[in-house]
Amino acid sequence: MVVLLLRDFDPKNMFPVMRHGIMLSIKGAVVPGLGWFSEFFIIAFFFPLLTDQEKGKKWGMISVLSVALTMVVTNLTALFLFGGTMISSYLYPVFEASRYISIADFFEHLEAVVMVVWVAGIFIKVSVFFYVLSLGTAQWLNLSDYRVVVFPYGFLLILFGMWVTSNIQEMSRFLELVSPLHSPLFLLAIPLCLLFLAMFRKGRKGEQQR
């Protein structure tokens, strides 16, 4: 998509850079960054299942850097295409950018492809969260098999999926105002506290055995 839009890019659209100072840019980046990248803590749940954990850490870092690079490229694409003033009027700038692709009045309407990739990515993301939730619950309750909680959680997932946000405006407001605080709390702060607690208990247990 980026290659097909290259002829429509105008680098002047990215100027002026940091017109209102660097602090405003940092504040604008920290809030969504905390919401998005705190989800990478989910990778930690898969480390115990790996045969080679060193490779797991390596590819986990590569994944984080790849996503960061992809986000930079997609944001620059929308910025070069629409400009700073116009881009703020779009709810999903990358989706709008795909509508600009038109080659010889034949190769166009690629927003359907973007939507397919988007939906597939969300399906994988929800599946990973669903698996981690089921696995974590089974370990917490000392269940022999995590599949016992799959159906109840699946039912609640559908229920809360319809109840949490009734329309796209409400969902956008949730992602803008609530998610940047909600995600770091549940995906970073609480798991880190549990990790430190487990390390502390393991250390004390080792001292008592000595």
Automatic annotation (TrEMBL):
InterPro entries: Spore_GerAB. The chain crosses the membrane at residues 20-47, 59-92, 112-134, 146-164, 184-200. Keywords: Germination, Membrane, Transmembrane, Transmembrane helix, Transport. It holds the Pfam family Spore_permease. It is a multi-pass membrane protein. Its main location: membrane. It is found in: Membrane. Belongs to the amino acid-polyamine-organocation (APC) superfamily. Spore germination protein (SGP) (TC 2.A.3.9) family. This is GerAB/ArcD/ProY family transporter. It comes from Fodinisporobacter ferrooxydans.
